[in-house]
Amino acid sequence: MQLQALKAGILSSLLLVAVATSVSAVAAAGFTTDQPQVQAFINMMVDKHGFEEEQLVRVFEQAQHREDILELMRKPAEKRLEWYEYRKIFLTPARIEGGVNFWKENADSLLKASAAFAVDPQIIVAIIGVETRYGSNTGRHRVLDALSTLAFDYPPRSEFFTGELEQYLILAREENIDVVETTGSYAGAMGYGQFIPSSYRNYAVDFDADGKRDLWNSKMDIIGSVANYFKQHGWILDAPVAVRAAVEGDDYLPVLELGYEPNTVLDALRHDGITPLKPMPDELVAALLSLEQQDGPEYWLVFNNFYTITRYNHSPLYAMAAYQLSEEIREAYEQSPHFSE
What we know:
Structural class: alpha+beta
Mean pLDDT: 90
Number of strands: 7
Distance between the termini: 82 Å
Strand order of the largest sheet: 4-6-7-3-5
Largest sheet: 5 strands, antiparallel
Radius of gyration: 24 Å
Strand content: 5-15%
Number of helices: 17
């Protein structure tokens, strides 16, 4: 009986190894021209952008379908967490201290970027802090795997990610980026500021004037690129971002349905029972936002600059976290001995 059990155990182990090897082989399989959408994409890149077909075939043979990336796409934190849970991820002493240190280390570049692009330095720092903890986590997924998986195997957003895959291949050619081994987020975002390929091509700047837009190694390029993104999306220097508000009655409820893009002047909002908790000019255009705390909703009036943050990431939770982190960093930086030097 013991010998029989031993043989059964060995057979079971061999089967498990065989299954694991088979699964691994499938996971590691590249995208091939046997897949119509892959061949169609390659044809488009050849005809539209002058790529060599054989070169692209070799590239996609090295790309891997990533089921874990599909799972991450289906449940982003912005959709599964309430505000009080989401806030805890980013408003931490370590991230605030990291922001102060990043500001100190790059004060000259931030000053230059703020002057060149008319963007407040604290929001530049906060975005880099939210996205990658000041460059300590720029992503572990190969960008080629992420974009290929999402373009060819994620129908809900296939069109968008096919466009990003197109932009990535062009970007790699323009900036001499390793198209196969470059890593980023599960959505194909890259560098300290997590630019998707189209944003990299459209908004990244060579702020250190060395002939290359490098969002991994050049702090000047990183800072200048985030600043340029905000400038191009309408940031106004020294303008308000958001302010807590009190509500009364029921007239404010239809205002919430209008979304977070500024839509109504404050003077009119006051007549709807919405009052900013600190003085603000009546002519400012605002939107009303409700964020869930553990003991119920809190209300915020949000302005143009808040909407600009949502052009970086469309979640209002993200925008509020970035704004509040920026304020914490600014206050801590201004209170530090370095600030008065």
